[in-house]
Amino acid sequence: MTELYFVKLGGSLITDKDTPNTARLPILQRLAEEIAAARNARPDLEILIGHGSGSFGHVAAKKHGTRAGVQSSAAWRGFAEVWQTARTLNQIVIESLSQAGLPVIAFPPSACVLARAGSVLHWDVSLIRRALQAGLVPVIQGDVAFDETLGGTILSTEDLFFYLAPILQPDRILLTGIEPGIWADFPARTQLITNLTPQTLPALRQQLHGSASTDVTGGMEAKVERMMSLLQAPGKLQIAIFSGLQPGLLTQALTGSLPGSVLSHFPIH
After folding, report:
1. Which CATH number goes with the domain that contains 90?
2. Per-residue pLDDT tens digits for 57-88
3. Sign of the four-CA dihedral 90, 48, 259, 172
């Protein structure tokens, strides 16, 4: 049976988040090759790729306060600046994926998503569905978006996955970053949470923390909360948060067992 996987290439992974507008090209190219290898091994696998903005979008967004809203003329100029930096990284990602042999096609949220109060309000997902049915690999990204109440805002890849998941119903959501998973004791990093369920989340919520780098969309805590809310609905969805720095883990997650921290409806033994 055909399965659909969402894959996020984290901004902290594919860019140097502490150096503005700096892509980690060797890492990005390897990840693209891993996705291509998995798709060759599983021709029936449908993949939707999303990526963060890292040191491209987040630095400009923090400077202009874009996430909180856009109203003034200066803020709209900042909105355009954030779009430009995010667009620059998106082109780099598209080229790397294409060079690996993936038939990618971009769906930038700034051009097709309307938000309200910082969340997706309207998105014609039928076009993404058509791309998947045609054997293409849609690529979305953390991006600016026009917002009915805020004027403009920023939507993270997790925000976009959150909207798309109930509609497209992926079997797995794979979130790659620089950490091997969710730490129970960040920043000490000695105890990794290997499995998180809606039942165990409340006891561990106090141990979740944000990002160590500039991240206007909330870091790890926001990521986990957003993804865990998808597990409120019954289904077979599994979500994995793991490191893309270790070669082979992404291919493994696309073709076999899940590495890192797994978010699921029930405990995994």
Report:
1. 3.40.1160.10
2. 878 888 999 999 999 999 999 999 999 999 99
3. positive
